[in-house]
Amino acid sequence: xxxxxYDWNKPLKQLKAMAREKAAELDxxxxxxxxxxxxxxxxxxxxxxxxxxxxxxxxxxxxxxxDALVAKxxxxx
Length: 77
Description:
Blueprint: H1 9-25, H2 30-33, H3 36-45, H4 60-76
Helix pairs in contact: 1-4
């Protein structure tokens, strides 16, 4: 799989910052809340049109950070 294009650097930083803030709020490691491969998978769903959460961001992650990530992606992409 090809790495995400350079154009994604700034949006990725924004999304990672959201995850770090939320993780700090919940007193958990950011990597537990959102892994880089989960974020890449989420971004790649946009290649088919609309962004949607990958399986790894469903369950408790959906309500904690997943829905907010999708909303932010729609705003910045």
